[in-house]
Specification:
This protein has 459 residues and is α/β, with parallel strands linked by helices. The chain is built from 16 helices and 16 strands. The strands form 4 sheets. The protein has a 9-stranded mixed beta sheet, with helices on both faces. The chain is globular, with a radius of gyration of 23 Å.
């Protein structure tokens, strides 16, 4: 085949689960007289397609046509249309943005529907987000976003696949990790700034940065302040309500944090317990009030549609309680089954045809009614009901770092275990990762510093 069978099967597996159940699918293709022919056979039923092609960008064209042909075959055979159509990537808004610049707003919606089989609703959502992002896009080739990883947490959520260490099991590593991290920030940060890179956004994430002692977080933020200044935006991913107290906020208020994340995920206590959270919904309210009374932050709150055990009514409860708190931004995630999560290891499977799509419909409607607009979107594999993650905010509170990450038009300087730095080169990205294992990261910090400096100094 001209299109790799293994890659094609991965494409099929990214569609809704019902497309995989009890289906025997075979493929074949050929090119003859500049005509690309694709044949799909599903449980003995054949679907045949043909497309005009030429040698220019042939591989990309074959991939594009084959994905559509597979989707069309599956859709015709099962009678199911997926909201995102044949699109399987992380960044559909990037496609909309590119089309906007080429053919305008209405033609973009039409192209997403026709060329990617998206529903009119998803095509319009992507196009509206791309329009919102346009005035916020980075246009400085020397701009750099800084990411700092603090890979510790109080407990591991059942859906989580991040490389992080339980706070009780590895508490003895907090100090040594912080020292190693600070040395990387100061040495590499100074070198990169001296190369002429201009800091744009700073994001401290994890894990849960506020899971370590306040004095350790102070050391990290102080190191960042030594080498970086004048950020357009400074986000702290506090995340867990049970890590936020007055001592932590005193430290945070010493620095110019502009954006603060408190992520309840759900406001239902039984669901919180089921996913491995140690706090209650009431703790979320308490943390939120504490943050409001001890700082001047733009607050974002994350929720997840389709969590195990969640119902439409309980999800509506979450949305209404979060809206009552009135944060500047609310990010609505769709539950995704991640390979390294404990749920996956327990053979939990996404159901497809669940109620997650109805949860999203409710959330989007209510957020719109309350003055929140979508500004950022990305997708993942194995999401309930072929869904998406969407950031909403009040006007003027868009997270620039999130936009930069999805647009991939800004260099990323990343510090800490598992952190991935990215450089834009020849309209593409090259990447360099710090060691994922925390103890290996600590042991090899000098080598990591040298490699990071070398990575950014190359032409």
């Amino acid at each position: 085949m001209y299109y790799d069978v293994h890659e094609l099967q991965q494409v099929v597996n990214e569609f809704v689960p019902v497309f995989k159940n009890e289906l025997i699918m075979e493929y074949s293709d050929e090119i003859k007289n500049d005509i690309y022919g694709f044949k799909a056979v599903i449980n003995g039923k054949s679907y045949v397609y043909s497309h005009n092609v030429d040698k220019e960008n042939l591989k990309a064209k074959i991939k594009f046509f084959s994905k559509n042909d597979v989707y069309d075959s599956l859709s015709n055979y099962t009678g199911i249309s997926i909201p995102w159509g044949s699109h399987t990537g992380v960044r559909p808004v990037a496609i909309a943005g590119k089309l906007l610049r080429q053919i305008g707003e209405e033609n973009t919606v039409e192209a997403l529907v026709n060329d990617y089989r998206m529903s009119k609703e998803k095509a319009r959502l992507c196009t509206n987000i791309a329009l919102t992002q346009q005035p916020l896009l980075n246009n400085n080739k020397k701009s750099i976003d800084v990411y700092i990883s603090v890979p510790f947490c109080i407990s591991r959520c059942t859906y989580c696949s991040f490389s992080l260490i339980g706070i009780e099991k590895k508490r003895h590593l907090h100090s040594t990790y912080t020292k190693a991290l600070c040395s990387e920030i100061e040495a590499v940060g100074k070198a990169v700034v001296d190369m002429g890179y201009v800091p744009r956004c700073l994001y401290i994430g994890g894990g849960t940065p506020t899971a370590i002692r306040p004095e350790l977080l102070d050391m990290i933020m102080k190191s960042a302040a030594k080498v970086f200044s004048d950020f357009k935006e400074f986000t702290l991913e506090a995340g867990r309500a049970d890590t936020i107290d007055t001592d932590m906020l005193k430290v945070i208020n010493k620095y110019n944090v502009t954006r603060f994340n408190i992520n309840p995920q759900t406001m239902n206590d039984d669901i919180l317990k089921g996913i491995g959270r140690n706090h209650s919904s009431e703790d979320v309210f308490t943390a939120y009030e504490l943050v409001r009374s001890n700082g001047h932050f733009n607050v974002n709150m994350d929720v997840i549609a389709g969590l195990p055990g969640e119902t439409i009514e309980s999800f509506k409860n979450t949305i209404e309680k979060v809206l009552k708190m009135d944060p500047e931004a609310i990010t609505v995630h769709t539950f995704a089954l991640k390979r390294a999560s404990s749920l996956k290891k327990q053979d939990y499977g996404i159901k497809g045809n669940s109620v997650a799509d109805k949860m999203l419909e409710y959330a989007y409607k209510r957020l719109g009614e309350m003055g929140y607009n979508p500004y950022y979107l990305y997708r993942q594999k194995n999401m309930e009901d072929n869904g998406e993650n969407v950031g909403f905010c009040k006007k003027g509170y868009e997270c620039v770092y999130n936009i930069d990450i999805m647009e991939e038009n800004t260099h990323i300087l990343a510090f800490g275990s598992g952190a991935v730095s990215k450089r834009i080169k020849n309209d593409g990205l090259i990447r360099r990762s710090d060691p994922k294992d925390i103890e290996v990261y600590i042991d090899r910090i000098k080598d990591t510093v040298n490699k990071s400096i070398e990575f950014f100094s190359k032409n």
